């Protein structure tokens, strides 16, 4: 799978901060050298070199954890050293540094390293400022930290919500085709490492077009929503239901007994046939089942399940068909 959204976000933040950091600090390094202010010039030169090195590292490797910590420590160390070397009036640099840290290392580490830094900086300036100024500086630094924490928390929640919404179908709230393909590919990739072959059920509402034609699209929508509800209520939490097309659904049962998906599919078929999804007519589903074969691609596996579904339609609908290789595997397992 490609990089997660969080990783991409952190990578971008690090690249922007490292790039901007290098561009912002480099001129100061040159000015300080020109002014022969050797201590600050040395700090600025080291900081800008580290920013350039981090930018190149993240650009080339896509790794973010260590660079995130390194930039954070540099931000805080630079802000602290500036206070030590140039006096308490330079504490202003601590505030943007603390906010940057939240983006780089996450809110839990962010709040921890920031509080430690505030303690160090306060110890440094303790005897250099008036008691009232001490209190002002301490409270403003802590408030900045608290606001940054709350902001980071709400941003993380929103990112999680958006990522979840991108995996859901708007009408039924079942997981969507994108989530299905991700899970299908993941199961194919882990097949060698798990005990039994992953299994796939695909099912489709029979003569759904005629429901739309006779009773209207809204009624068709209601059937899709209610069907999703009754199937999800029957499934275990680990057996996810996906809406993969208009009236086509899939289930990837996990932690089920091996070669058990055909009976699960038949149970669901019966459940739908016996439920009163519509008062005016009975609703039925047809299903195809396939167990993944070693060395088979996700597409080949899906096609076999889809072929079994079409066999169920050809056989008169309201029934379940299993892919022949599913039976072979079942027999093989029973024989061994
Ligand atoms: N109401 C509603 N209808 C949909 C939605 N998505 C697809 N459809 C309809 O689902 C119908 C699918 O029709 P077909 O593919 O011919 O399948 P069918 O009528 O169920 O026939 P069989 O599958 O062969 O039993 C089409 O009329 C689509 O317009 C949706 O979100 N809401």
Instruction: Note the overall shape.
Output: elongated
Tell me the strand order in the biggest sheet.
Answer: 2-3-1-4-5
How would you characterize the largest beta sheet? 5 strands, mixed
Bound molecules: guanosine-5'-triphosphate
What structural category arises from helix and sheet content?
alpha+beta
Radius of gyration, taken over Cα atoms and rounded to an integer in Å: 30 Å
SSE topology string: HHHHHHEHHEEHEHEH
Strand content bin: 5-15%
Mean pLDDT, to the nearest integer, reads 88
pLDDT under 50 segments (min length 5)?
329-336
Cofactor: Mg(2+)
Catalytic activity: 2 GTP = 3',3'-c-di-GMP + 2 diphosphate
Transmembrane segments: 12-34, 40-59, 66-85, 111-129, 135-153
Protein name: diguanylate cyclase
Task: Explain what the structure shows.
This protein is an alpha+beta fold and 336 residues long. The protein has 2 domains: 5-165, no CATH class; 177-335, Alpha-Beta Plaits. Helix content is 67%, strand content 8%. The protein is built from 11 helices and 5 strands; from the N terminus they run ααααααβααββαβαβα. It has a 5-stranded mixed beta sheet with strand order 2-3-1-4-5, sandwiched between helices. β2 (240-243) and β3 (248-252) form a beta hairpin. The radius of gyration is 30 Å and the shape is elongated. The protein starts with a helix and ends with a helix. Mean pLDDT is 88; it is low at 329-336. Bound molecules: guanosine-5'-triphosphate (GTP). Guanosine-5'-triphosphate (GTP) binds at residues 171, 204-209, 212, 217, 220-221, 224, 246-247, 313, 317.
């Amino acid at each position: 799978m490609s990089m997660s959204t969080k990783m991409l976000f952190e990578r971008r933040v690090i690249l922007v901060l490292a790039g901007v950091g290098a561009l912002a600090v480099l001129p100061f390094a040159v000015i300080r050298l020109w002014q022969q202010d050797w201590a600050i010039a040395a700090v600025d030169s080291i900081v800008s070199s580290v920013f350039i090195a981090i930018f190149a590292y993240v650009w080339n490797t896509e790794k973010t954890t260590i660079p995130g910590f390194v930039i954070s420590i540099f931000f805080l160390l630079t802000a602290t050293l500036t206070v030590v070397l140039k006096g308490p009036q330079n504490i202003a640099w601590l505030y943007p540094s603390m906010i940057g840290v939240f983006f780089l290392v996450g809110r839990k580490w962010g709040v921890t390293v920031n509080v430690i830094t505030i303690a160090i900086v306060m110890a440094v300036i303790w005897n250099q400022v008036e008691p009232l100024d001490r209190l002002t500086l301490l409270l403003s630094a802590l408030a900045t930290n608290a606001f940054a924490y709350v902001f980071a928390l709400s941003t993380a929640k929103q990112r999680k919500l958006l990522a979840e919404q991108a995996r859901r179908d708007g009408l039924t709230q079942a997981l969507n085709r994108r989530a299905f393909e991700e899970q299908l590919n993941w199961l194919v990739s882990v097949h060698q490492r798990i005990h039994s072959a992953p299994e796939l059920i695909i099912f489709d509402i029979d003569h759904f077009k005629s429901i739309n034609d006779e009773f209207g699209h809204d009624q068709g929508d209601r059937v899709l929503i209610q069907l999703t509800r009754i199937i999800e209520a029957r499934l275990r939490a680990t057996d996810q239901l996906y809406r993969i097309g208009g009236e086509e659904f899939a289930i990837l049962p996990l932690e089920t007994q091996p070669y058990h998906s055909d009976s699960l599919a038949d149970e669901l078929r019966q459940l739908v046939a016996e439920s009163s999804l519509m008062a005016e007519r009975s609703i039925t589903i047809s299903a195809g089942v396939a167990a993944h074969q070693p060395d088979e691609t996700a597409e080949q596996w899906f096609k076999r399940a889809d072929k079994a579904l079409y066999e169920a339609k050809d056989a008169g609908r309201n029934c379940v068909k299993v892919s022949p290789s599913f039976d072979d595997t079942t027999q093989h397992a029973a024989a061994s």
